[in-house]
Design goal:
This protein is of the alpha/beta class and 276 residues long. The chain has two domains: 121 residues, Leucine Dehydrogenase, chain A, domain 1 (Rossmann fold, 3-Layer(aba) Sandwich); 133 residues, NAD(P)-binding Rossmann-like Domain (Rossmann fold, 3-Layer(aba) Sandwich). Helices cover 39% and strands 18% of the residues. The protein is built from ten helices and twelve strands. Strands 2-1-3-5-6-4 form a six-stranded mixed β-sheet, sandwiched between helices. A six-stranded parallel β-sheet has the order 9-8-7-10-11-12, with helices on both faces. Strand 7, helix 5 and strand 8 form a beta-alpha-beta unit. The protein is globular and about 60 Å long. The protein starts with 9 loop residues before the first strand and ends in a 5-residue tail after the last helix.
Length: 276
Amino acid sequence: MRPLINKDTVMCMSLSARPSNFGTRFHNYLYDALGLDYVYKAFSTQDIVGAIAGVRALNIRGCAISMPFKEACIPLVDELAPSAKAIDSINTIVNTNGHLKAYNTDYSAIAQLLRDYQVPTELSFALLGSGGMAKATACALRDAGFRRGTIVARNEQTGRQLAELYGFAWQAGAAGLEADLLLNTTPIGMPGSPEEAELAFTEAHIAAARVVFDMVAAVSGTPLIHAANAAGKTVIRGTEVFALQAVEQFVLYTGIRPDAELFAQAAAHARQQPVA
């Protein structure tokens, strides 16, 4: 059991447009289990510059970065680790005596899940989105050996740029596109968002696919996840990405790597309560 919160308790946090309970429950469970004098809290903000300045000024040890701040935070930190520099997207900030170093742990989580689910690299794919998570996903797909893919993004500039960077095609919309692997990196289906009830891909796209991978970390599932399960597809959930990338953040913040059993317990605990 960790000590009671006191003046020396180390603070870690997350910043996202729609904070959830998943990371808070995951990290605090590990702090309790390991007896660490840390506490974790989720926040949102309309002032990302002020928020990151607060991380520095208040000596917040670690800050997880979620949509839509993964690219906006880049000019606000002091150093990019190779994982963030290669993708030009960050999801983790570590504060060491006022020096803010940024990392990206999304890439490794996505790459591991593609391996764990043994998704064949010869499959064609459609990746919806062109933001920070899309960058990590496209890079992981390229590095895993996927060659037949399309970036689906309404923003032509960022969509084309991402597609050209990793050698994939680009389309503004998914109409007329058939793919074996569907990947959603947008907020479509996210609880609390204006698009909470929407499908990221159509039922026809889902029917034609073999694997559906939704990055939205909704414990209760998303419309895309529910539709893919109903259609009998192989499904990879955003909560799996979240847990894998979160444990890497935990290591960066604390210097301690939980064993596999404790990681599984923390992930299960985090999934017990729906993401708000």
